[in-house]
Design a protein that fits this description.
The protein is of the alpha+beta class. It contains nine helices and 26 strands.
């Protein structure tokens, strides 16, 4: 009995010490410095955003544009882009980039998402269609944009911008989406060998994407970003919402391409799905990426005041820009779910260190290698490696930025198939493919 009293005394003492160190109203203003109860429970999912064509080891800023580190420049004059003002044009590495991302969503409603979300007509449709997994706004910046504290600095946005562009991926705060779908009996009746939920769409909602070089009639353009005035640059979201030549009437029936930047899983991509969230407790990564870093290009258009605006946008990958105010349709997205506990790595031999070629990884059933981002990709270097691949059969494709030099691979050189087996887990496999 005495021993029980001693235990009770020690337990009471420890509780007193614990709660005596709890925060009180006096501590207001320092809440973010201490963990709260919700942070003590780890999410099963880690959401990573990447702003690169390559998932692994993307080219360094100095390696872009075939090793010059220069920004691409669109064709200009004679009915193309108006003659640009290129005074004090920075290298790609020195270009300030500011991203204000409202949220990230995914959806398992395959039929409702056909035709680039044009069936989503109102808030009710949107709420039924999307899983709002990451509704907390995030601001990334390659450099600070104000002398006082700002949203980017408060949320480690400079580090996240670095990770966004270097292949690590910027962590985006999120909630775990649902994995619950069918019972074992229902799954067996449909011939499904797994339990969980398959997602077919992802969307990154850009509030603003500012590139820090823009001139209007030769004078620097300024704007407000994160409610801070006099930021040098141009918000290219309005420029990229619609493809060049889109009429005003057509715009009323089209979902803006940057709100969201949409990934729609095709039938071929769904055969061996990389968007399945299994039931259980094993952790996974949801990786969502866009092609931005490798495809920065100078464009120009004539303003409503008949002046020429020169700015850094995205290269003419799919839609040629010829001086229109709209220059969209060239930023594309892809998402995948990775299970690090069971995923394996891939090394690829045969690369010649060409800065114009990539190894793209696609599911074996996929036949579209150009108009879709690869499931995974890396520059065709002698040390080429892909960090995470789920089990399955794949193609590795040597792709070259050959036909139209703009930073985006547009030519299939050669391909070969390989398989990542179910067992053993976390192995490293090698495939050989000469590239180029």
């Amino acid at each position: 009995m005495n021993r029980l009293k001693i235990y009770y005394f020690l337990f009471s003492l420890s509780c007193f010490y614990l709660f005596s160190n709890c925060k009180t109203d006096v501590d207001l203003g320092k809440e973010t410095k201490f963990p709260v109860i919700s942070t003590l429970f780890n999410n099963r999912m880690l959401l990573l955003l990447k702003g690169t064509y390559a998932t692994d080891n993307p080219l360094d800023w100095s390696e872009l544009n075939n090793g010059t580190g220069d920004l691409y420049i669109d064709s200009q004059g004679d009915g193309l882009d108006p003659i640009m003002t290129l005074t004090n044009l920075p290298k790609a590495a020195d270009l300030p980039i500011f991203l204000d991302i409202g949220e990230v969503r995914i959806s398992s409603k395959f039929d409702k998402g056909f035709n680039d979300l044009t069936q989503i007509r109102d808030t009710v449709d949107s709420n039924k269609f999307w899983d709002f997994i990451a509704p907390n706004r995030q601001v990334f910046c390659t450099r600070t944009y104000s002398l006082d504290n700002n949203t980017c600095l408060e949320s480690d946005g400079i580090l996240k911008a670095y990770d966004f562009f270097n292949g690590i991926g910027a962590q985006f705060p999120s909630n775990d989406p649902s994995a619950e779908t069918l019972s074992w009996e229902e799954a067996a009746a449909l011939g499904k060998a797994w339990l969980g939920r398959e997602y077919y769409y992802s969307g990154i909602y850009f509030r603003s994407l500012v590139t820090g070089f823009a001139l209007d009639a030769g004078l620097p353009v300024t704007l407000r970003f994160d409610n801070r005035p006099n930021i040098f640059g141009l918000n290219i979201v309005p420029r990229n919402n619609y493809a060049p030549g889109t009429t005003t009437a057509e715009k009323s029936a089209i979902v803006p391409k940057m709100f969201p930047s949409l990934f729609s899983q095709t039938f071929e991509q769904a055969v061996q799905s990389d968007m399945r969230i299994r039931e259980g407790f094993d952790p996974y990564i949801l990786e969502v990426r866009i092609n931005l870093k490798e495809n920065l290009m100078l464009h120009s258009y004539t303003s409503s005041r008949s002046t020429t605006v020169t700015y850094v946008g995205v290269s003419d990958i799919f839609f040629d820009h010829k001086g229109e105010g709209d220059a969209g349709g060239n930023i594309i997205s892809r998402a995948r779910v990775i299970y690090p506990e069971t995923a394996s790595s891939l090394t690829i031999s045969g690369g010649t260190n060409s800065l114009l070629h990539y190894y793209g990884i696609f599911r074996f059933e996929e036949t579209e290698f150009i108009n879709e981002l690869p499931l995974a990709a890396t520059p065709a270097k002698q040390t080429a490696k892909i960090k995470y691949l789920n089990p399955g059969t794949y193609k590795v494709v040597c792709l070259g930025d050959v036909s139209k030099r703009d930073g985006y691979p547009d030519t299939v050189v050669r391909e070969t198939a390989f398989t990542i087996p179910e067992f053993p887990f976390r192995q490293t496999y090698n495939v050989d493919l000469a590239c180029p």
